From TrEMBL:
Function statement: Required for resistance to DNA-damaging agents.
Localization per record: Cytoplasm
Keywords: Cytoplasm
Pfam family, one: Usp
Protein's name in the database: Universal stress protein
Residue intervals of the UspA domain: 5-140, 169-295
Domain of life of the source: Bacteria
Similarity-based family: Belongs to the universal stress protein A family.
Amino acid sequence: MTAPVLAILDSDLKAPQPALYKARQVADSTKAPLHVLVNAYSSAMVRAVGVDHERQDAARAQIHKAWQNRISELTDRERCQLSILWHKDSMAALRESILDLQPAMVVVHTSEESGLRRHLFTPRDWQLIRKAPCPVLCVHGRQWPHAPRVLAALDPGTEEQPQDALAVNVLGAANHFAGNLGGTLRATHVLDEMDDSLILLVGEAIPDYSGGMEKVRQFYRDRFQAFGAAHGLGPDQMTVLTGPVAPTLAKYCDEHDMDVLVVGTVHRNLPERLLLGATAESVITRASTDVLVIKPQGFQSPWQA
């Protein structure tokens, strides 16, 4: 059986649930099953009802029915499987559900807050990015257009590693995503600005390195262009950016009205090659675009340890 696309709903019964709408679009475009999950646990209800088990059961049944009705309003129940959980520890319940379902993708509505409040309100997203055993799509409330604009953030590797496996996975996922949804695809590589003291460290990875920041930049521009061309990208689909990775990606996405940014989650050793988990998290807290996070081949989830 095809692995499902899992939509994790906001716990507010009246919320518009953008994760559900976008998960349904992804599932429909790939002909995958759709699974909808919500943790209906209400601490306010538990406090109001008290320790009377009969009253607790009646209240839980009422909340369960309300969620069934709400999801029926939002989507065709016959087209999806539904899990309505009741767990005080929402992250533990989510972890167990994901490991049990083994979804092809998790879709979650990330925080719409700004600034520091946004960082404080996304611990669930960080857990999913770092630990879920599958791609994670963090979405905002804005709907996708008929032809969504997809941007793949790539790290094409060095001459010693001419085809970076994660970059291949990220580009493949972005191409697949854009193609299934009838969208357009662009790719970018971000050259992070480096202090002069780091140039010699970076230079060790460059054949015949003779020093100079511009040579470092040109080396990675050439690598990116060669990588993109080898994987079917035209020159007009590739952009090299310069600056701190997360804010630079976020700014580019906002200025060019991108709908989905696709990034990878593997730590890099060189300071200018930081498309890693922390960067994915930083982009999510900065950009207004949706972010699809791709795990490396053979990724072992800490949840499965």
